[in-house]
Amino acid sequence: THFGRHKHPTLKTVTENLGIDIKAPLGSPIFAVDQGRVQTITWQRGLGNIIMLSHDDGFYTMYTHMAEIHVELRDNVESGQVIGTVGDSGSLNGSILHFQIWKNTKNLDPEKWLGSPLLTFGNL
Fold it and tell me: Which one of 52, 66, 90, 118 is most buried, by most CB atoms within 10 A?
């Protein structure tokens, strides 16, 4: 599912996705998109197991629906480090990774950043 507002074709209801949903096989590795520090590890209804990483300059990334978590609270992580695995905790759509990027209190469209040759938050 893409970032932003979506209208259900049948029900005509509008929902807002604060990130993107990436379908992936159960147990696939989840990589940190940039170096940072583990800010939060928690569980929330509808999102399941969650990790939030804090990065330089007020950026945060959030990874949800995780099966396994391979980091501890306050760990420093490197870009590309495996932080856990894709799961279906809290998901109604099977195994999936829900991914968000925030700059302070503003959520950003991850699709505009992922795949960019400039892989640092300062280049967003």
Answer: 66
**Half-sphere exposure at residue 97, Cβ-oriented, CA atoms within 13 angstroms:** 23
Query: Does the predicted TM-score (pTM) go above 0.85?
Result: no
Helix, strand, coil content of the chain in percent (nearest 5): 5, 50, 45
**In the predicted model, is pLDDT for residue 65 greater than 50?**
yes
Q: Is the separation of the CB atoms in 83 and 30 below 8 Å?
A: yes
> With contact defined as beta carbons under 8 Å apart, do 3 and 16 qualify?
no
Q: Is there a contact between 39 and 60 (Cβ–Cβ < 8 Å)? A: yes
What number of other Cβ atoms are within 10 A of residue 61's Cβ?
Answer: 24
Neighbours of 33 (CB within 10 A): 22
Which amino acid, 72?
A: E
Instruction: Kindly write down the DSSP assignment for every residue of 30-72, as one continuous string.
Output: EE-SS-EEEEEEEEETTTEEEEEEE-GGGEEEEEEEEEEE---
Token pair of 66 as six digits: 């995780």
